[in-house]
Write a structure and sequence with these properties.
Blueprint: H1 5-25, H2 31-63, H3 68-121, H4 128-157, H5 159-188, H6 193-235, H7 240-250, H8 257-272, H9 274-299, H10 308-346, H11 348-358
Helix pairs in contact: 2-3, 2-5, 3-8, 4-10, 6-7, 6-9, 6-10, 7-8, 8-9
Amino acid sequence: MMDKNWFQTGIAIIITLLIVALTIKIQVIFEPVYIILTTIFYPLLLGGLLYYITEPVQSFLERHKAGRLLSTTMIFILVVLVLAGLGSIIVPMIVTEAGHLVERTPYLLNEFEELFEFLMSQRERLPFDVQEQVDKIVDQASGIIQGLSAGIITFLANTIGVLAMLILVPFFLFFMLKDHEKFIPAALSPFRGAVRQFLNELLSDIDYTLKSFIRGQVLVSIILAVMLYTGYVLIGLDYAILLALFALFMNVIPFVGPWIAFAPALIMGLIQDPLMGVWVAAVTLVAQQIDGNIVTPNVMGQKLNLHPLTIITIVLAAGNIAGFVGMLIAIPFYAVVKAAIKNIWRYRGSISETLSNRA
């Protein structure tokens, strides 16, 4: 029985869980490692995001005879120019709308409180099960918003974290662009034979999965945010640029993000004018239909092959475990784990044989 693949796989899983449990028990020993990892996590995440977005530009430049160092430098210059251009156009609009929003905050809070009390008073007319679902949705939305607000305030208050971000993100991006082709060979250098082939295909699949998800999701989010902003401007919704920017960041979260972004837009519309709330819902519906039937299928395709129910379950579970950051990385993390399991299953026989021969 010990020679069976399923038995060896089960033993490996049990040993891994035991190692994780022991690590949690003696976490004080690993505290310095934890501090280092948390320090570089966000810069590495943003650096990797920028790398996957800008790598196609680098490939284009290198196909047209630009060297690696020159293409990397040109990308940095391009990023700075794009940020400066967007900043000169969008930042004044954001500042104007944000100032107006701050001035009207007491009025908006009062209007929101009245709207919320009205909606809560209508719950009694709903069937019991529907009322229970409304309570759950309200509780989850409040928890997500509170967690997101607390995270943003904590991060902005941490000056050291901001400085580390400003320094480390360009650092990680530079070396990812300059040496990205060396990462996999360097990681595989200690291995030979079937194990090396397995790890090579595994890392290549993970790279392809992350590349497909990040590029596709960012592009879809930008297109959807532009559609929403255009619709909000056409119907005359206040704070259109702020709501569209919020939607841009929320739409990075698959399937659930657009609904999170819809809530403040609907509330603002209802406060401005009850009829405006209807127009906001109509704009969102049209944008979602265009995104779901035209944009996403052509941009994302079926590369991740995830069922919508799976996406919702993973995102909500990750949100309860790790807040907004958990929701943000849940789907790519799940896709990476899925790719790893598929490769392990495909190579389970040859890997087991190689390890047995070494033993």
